[in-house]
Amino acid sequence: MGTFTDSSIKQLVSECIDDGNLHKLLRLPNTLDDFPEACIIQSVEYIIKCEEDRIEKALSDVSETELAQSTPWRKEDIESPHSAKKCFALNMMLSQKFSPQFLQEAARGMSFDCVLIITKYLQFLLSWSPPVPEENPCLPPLEQVIDWLNALVDSHFQQLKLAEDARELIGSLQEKITVMTQWQSESKALLGTLAEVRRQFEEQQRSNQKMGDYCIEVISF
């Protein structure tokens, strides 16, 4: 599509939203060299507000294989906050590359209702994600989920601390992050222990090898 300025890309996104063309909006990032953070936020907010029939129509060409890859929790009969296709659409935007700083700035423009909805979905992704997730191009990486949560919480800190309906969400997120942090700390400790065991094992192997070489020399003599 050629080179576009941030302003012209924002105009394209606005046109897609005004026309209700979710199909084009979802595929827009793949046709551009860059997709600004403000456009990602605007697109996520639009997807959240989209009715299911519009999402169904926009993703009618998505195969069941692609859908399954983007929503792997369905294989485990785990219920997500949204329909499979809405999750697919959200994942497409949440997986876009961004600068955490610029995302935080752009997130200030998101309505608080949408902030709560997308934060709950990100919490779901965080809770579902295995400790060592496999790489999946159809899902935002764990680090990116954390960056999204940071951007949303930091950009709406004042509202979150005052909103009664956000208290449970924030508490649940805090518990999850605490568990993850503990797991990472314990994993690092175990990794250090394993590295030391391996080092000493290799030293012992080298020592045994030297002893074997020495015995051969003595016998040869």
UniProtKB/TrEMBL annotation:
Transmembrane segments: none
Domain of life: Eukaryota
Signal peptide feature range: none
Nucleolar protein 11 C-terminal domain span: 18-219
GO BP term (any one): maturation of SSU-rRNA
Molecular function GO labels: RNA binding
Example of a GO cellular component annotation carried by this entry: nucleolus
Name of the protein described by the UniProt record: Nucleolar protein 11-like
Organism: Elysia marginata
